[in-house]
Design a protein that fits this description.
This protein has about 375 residues and is an alpha+beta fold. It is built from 9 helices and 15 strands. A 5-stranded mixed sheet has the order 1-2-3-5-15.
Length: about 375
């Protein structure tokens, strides 16, 4: 309250603070005309009740939920992906895109909790809280370089912008008493898939070119791939207009993937996605056995992936999952967790079945890292009125 008075005394009529600093108070105890809170409770830990409570205290609400809007978490469930895990095992572009900020319970139908379990969330019997906007956070305590920051923030922040500036047809109204889980079928998933396919196509084929012109070394997602029982390799990319390269000789020679490829049973296939200019590259993945309904992936192989380019650009240096001390992934790894279109017009591969095993041994490091964090880079976007 002392800070709020200082702000008001200087003629500033608005204050924004994280919710935990304002808990136990109400809006009418402050002197500025507006007091907004960054709401950062997770859905699976009872966040919807916390949302109702903070709205009842009279504060303006900025949705800053870590399980959907923190960019210091991995994009995918894989030990080679950098990031923490305490609120989300992954925050993919698709997961950020599907976040419904004004109907928090709805997200229980389109996503799982941190450990990959289904959620059941009932909308409280109160009027809908007034949501002022939403914000994506890139916390910096495990980020060491500008390129690492760019990779964590982009392209996820563009999905935040899409949700803040446009309410989609599949975003449902707050409806007191309605329950959402993986089986309720309230969300029109066909509409969501169509909307996401349109978004990700524009993202890959237009917006990423703009990012490069701005000098932003955005993240290139690794390919999704599988080898079927007949020995046919099929691959796709989360970002359309992204080039997929593959090698059948452990990285000595690379070829551009343009359609299904026959491989011998004992061949190990190396794959990597590359930006259209050949500079930015995904982490390397390998496929080494046929499987009818899964993708077996290994990564981190030290091979030459230059493809004739002398500038390696932001090649995911240091992506060793800094926040996950003693990590491991019982899920086997993944490449393409989201139902996206592909670069070659093929049907997307099915989502991989993750293990969602929580990394062990990182809790003490997590708390030290959290409290020593000096700053974050946030993107606040007010809703269009």
């Amino acid at each position: 309250m002392i800070v709020n008075k200082i702000v008001a005394d200087h003629g500033i009529d608005e204050m924004v603070a994280w919710e935990d600093g304002l808990r136990g108070t109400t809006k009418n105890q402050y002197e500025t005309g507006s007091v907004a809170v960054d709401f950062w409770e997770t859905l699976f830990w009872g966040g919807i009740d916390g949302l109702v409570d903070i709205a009842d205290d009279g504060f303006d609400i900025i949705m800053s939920n870590p399980d959907y809007l923190y960019f210091d978490f991995p994009y995918e469930v894989n030990p080679e992906e950098r990031g923490y895990y305490w609120a989300a095992r992954f925050n993919s572009v698709y997961k950020v895109f599907t976040f419904a900020p004004e109907n928090l319970a709805q997200n229980a139908e389109t996503s799982t909790d941190r450990d990959g379990n289904d959620m059941s969330v009932t909308t409280p019997n109160v009027p809908a809280p007034k949501i002022r906007g939403m914000q994506g956070q890139t916390w910096s305590e495990t980020i060491r370089t500008d390129d690492q920051y760019y990779e964590m923030a982009f392209p996820r922040v563009l999905a935040v912008a899409e949700r803040a500036w446009h309410r989609a047809s599949w975003e449902l109204d707050w409806s007191p008493g309605d329950t959402y889980d993986a089986t309720t079928g309230r969300v029109p998933m066909d509409d969501l898939a169509t909307d996401y396919h349109s978004f990700v196509s524009k993202l890959g084929c237009h917006e990423m070119f703009k990012m490069k012109k701005l000098g932003i070394n955005y993240r290139v997602p690794p390919p999704g791939a599988s080898i079927d029982a007949s020995g046919v390799l099929t691959a796709n990319s989360e970002l359309p207009c992204t080039v997929i390269m593959y090698s059948l000789d452990k990285g000595s020679k690379w070829s551009k993937y343009s359609g299904p490829v026959g491989v011998d049973n004992d061949e190990v296939v190396f794959l990597q996605s590359v930006s259209s200019d050949g500079v930015l590259k995904s982490r390397l993945v390998t496929i080494d056995e046929a499987c009818d309904d899964c993708v077996k992936v290994d990564s981190g192989n030290d091979v030459n992936t230059n493809y004739g380019n002398t500038n390696d650009g932001a090649n995911n240096d240091g992506k060793t999952n800094d926040g996950n001390a003693g990590g491991g992934n019982a899920g086997g790894g993944n490449t393409n967790s989201d139902p996206t279109t592909t670069t070659n017009g093929q049907s997307p591969l099915p989502p991989n079945d993750y293990g969602y095993t929580i990394y062990n041994g990182g809790n003490s490091l997590l708390m030290v890292g959290y409290f020593k964090c000096l700053f974050s880079v946030g993107f606040l976007l007010a809703f269009a009125q």
